C-alpha cells in the first residue's frame, strides 16, 4: 500500500502538505502535536498503523503549517482557527464534502470542534487520547517547565518527551522518535503548538456534536490522563467511551491492535488483513546503513567496492520496494529498525 503526497494552500497563505493512502470512503486524520508525512511513512510502527486505517478507507493525513513538509504559517502563534484553516484547505483540495473524521491527542479537540461547527461534513467522529480543556491536562508548573525545556533545549526535550508520549519505545526506535520530533518542526513551532494544546478549550462546543462518536483512551496514558478522555466523551451526546490497555500516548506505540479493532468496528469495517511487510536484501540493508551515515552514492560504491551506478540502482530499488520518496526516509527507517527486516 502506497501513499501519494501533494500540496495545497491554506487561507492564511501556508503551503500545506497532505497524503492519501488506501481507497474507499474518506477518513480524514487530524494529528496531534507534530507530524512529518514522509518520515512517519518510514517508521514501521507508525506506517503499520496508518496502513491498518487505510484498508477500506481513503485515509487523508496532513502536516500542519510549520510541520513536516508544510511551510511555516505566516503568524508565529498557533490557534484553533489556524487548525481549521489547514483542515479546510485539505478537505477542499481532496474534494471531500463529507467524511469520517479522526482526531488524535490535541487533534481530538480540533476534530470535535470542527464536527460541532460543521455537522453536515462529518459522518462519524473518532477521538483518541484527547481532551477538551487543555489547562487541566497537566499542572501549571509542569506546563511551564515543558514549554521552557522545548524552547531552550529542543534536543534534550525531544528525548525526554519520548518518555511521556511513548514509554514503550526502546532502543533504536527511541532514538528515531526523538530525531523524528526535531525534524518535524523547529523549537519555536513545537512550542507554539504545545502552547495551543495547553490552552485549548472546546467544552462549550461538545454538546453541538451530532455525529456518532467513539472516544478511545488508554487506561494509563502518561500524557493525557484517562479522566480527560472520559470528560471529552461525557460532553458529546451519545458518545461511546472505550478504554483500552496501555500507557503510551501515541496510538501506534505499544500494542495498537485493540485501538485498531475499536476504530474499524465503529466504522463498520471488517477485521483487517495483514499484508506482507516490505523486506530488503542483505546488500540493500548495507546500502541503507550507509545512507543513514550520510554517504553519497559515490561513497557507497567506494565502501562496498561497486560502481557508483550500481550504488544508485540499489538506492532506487530500496526506494521503490519500501515506497519511499527520499533518502531521508531510508535513513529514518534504518535508524528505527537497526537495519532489521
TrEMBL record:
GO MF, any single term: DNA binding
Organism: Actinoplanes cyaneus
Domain spans labelled HTH luxR-type: 273-338
SMART domains from the UniProt entry: HTH_LUXR
Stored CDD domains: LuxR_C_like (cd06170)
Name of this protein: LuxR family transcriptional regulator
SUPFAM superfamilies given in the database record: alpha/beta-Hydrolases, C-terminal effector domain of the bipartite response regulators
Highest taxon listed in the record's lineage: Bacteria
Record-level GO BP terms: regulation of DNA-templated transcription
